[in-house]
């Protein structure tokens, strides 16, 4: 009887939440009619399929974008670097992914604006995984081996380089290989022996364990990378300047999604299960990152730039910009 009551309460709560979201969207749209609407109501957001971006999927599912007068189309991408060229051409309005690719592009002359933070590392949210019967038992066993990543010179490259360095292993002793299909395809390829190890984000590490028996070789949330900033919501500075009300509306909706994601695990499970078509047995046990709320904080993002410089993802010619903090500051500005 207790189990039945718990599930009944969960169903009722979910129904009330959906109804409340619908009512809020209606009242929000009514309020917007008396105010200046966003300059552009239809926007496209390119996003990684990962639990790190639950705030985005929650904002979509709970009607938070609609409340702000926005119709958001979410396009799945394999990595941030894979879509930057399209964003600079104006084919994508906002991207959601690792800071690493944007910082590198900013240093090279592009101009981006970080609108909101998306996630930060927590235990087991980004891991180095090996196959079920792998002979790899320690990080030292990876010397001379291939490691699969979802993106070239990505957050995976950075986190694994830092991990190896902390254990006295030069990152140059391993070979990083990019999988163009990204996280959803990587557990199966690891099982088939494409690489000795793979960089996986949740919920795909849980998928790897559930479907293929793959195991964690190392948690990347340790030592120098503990609580490391992972993903953010980013627009070009040109787009943000041309669409300040749209950017502000997007941020307000994301903030609501982030806040709910940080306080309600069930909302995250539901959003990720729906967006990635995953069963409850996966979403119920996946590890979750932190979902920052509030104005963009340059301090954690500065950690990313410094680590990129340390491990060669930024050239030494950017040393002064990184050390003085001007590179990261140029991406934050006064906000939307």
Molecular structure report:
With 336 residues, the chain is α/β, with parallel strands linked by helices. It has 2 domains: 2-122 and 228-332, 3-Layer(aba) Sandwich (D-Maltodextrin-Binding Protein, domain 2); 126-225, 3-Layer(aba) Sandwich (D-Maltodextrin-Binding Protein, domain 2). It has 15 helices and 10 strands. It has helices at 2-33, 54-61, 64-67, 81-88, 99-107, 155-166, 186-191, 204-212, 237-242, 244-263, 265-276, 280-283, 298-310, 319-324, 326-332; strands at residues 42-47, 71-76, 94-98, 112-120, 126-130, 146-149, 175-178, 197-201, 215-219, 229-236. It has a 5-stranded mixed beta sheet, with helices on both faces.
Give a brief rundown of this model:
By secondary structure, the protein is α/β, with parallel strands linked by helices. The chain contains 15 helices and 10 strands.
Number of strands: 10
Protein structure class: alpha/beta
Main sheet summary: 5 strands, mixed
H/E series, N to C? HEHHEHEHEEEHEHEHEEHHHHHHH
Could you state the CATH homologous superfamily of the largest domain? Answer: Periplasmic binding protein-like II
Kindly report the average pLDDT value.
89
- Share of residues in helices: 40-55%
Instruction: Tell the overall outline.
Output: globular
Low-confidence stretches: 1-30
Please identify the top-level CATH class of the largest domain.
Alpha Beta
Whole-number tally of structural domains: 2
Side by side, the strands of the main sheet go: 2-1-3-10-4
User: Strand-residue fraction?
Assistant: 15-25%
Report how far the terminal alpha carbons are from each other: 51 Å
CATH architecture of the largest domain: 3-Layer(aba) Sandwich
Rg, Å, rounded = 20 Å
How many helices? The count is: 15
User: What would the CATH topology of the largest domain be?
Assistant: D-Maltodextrin-Binding Protein, domain 2
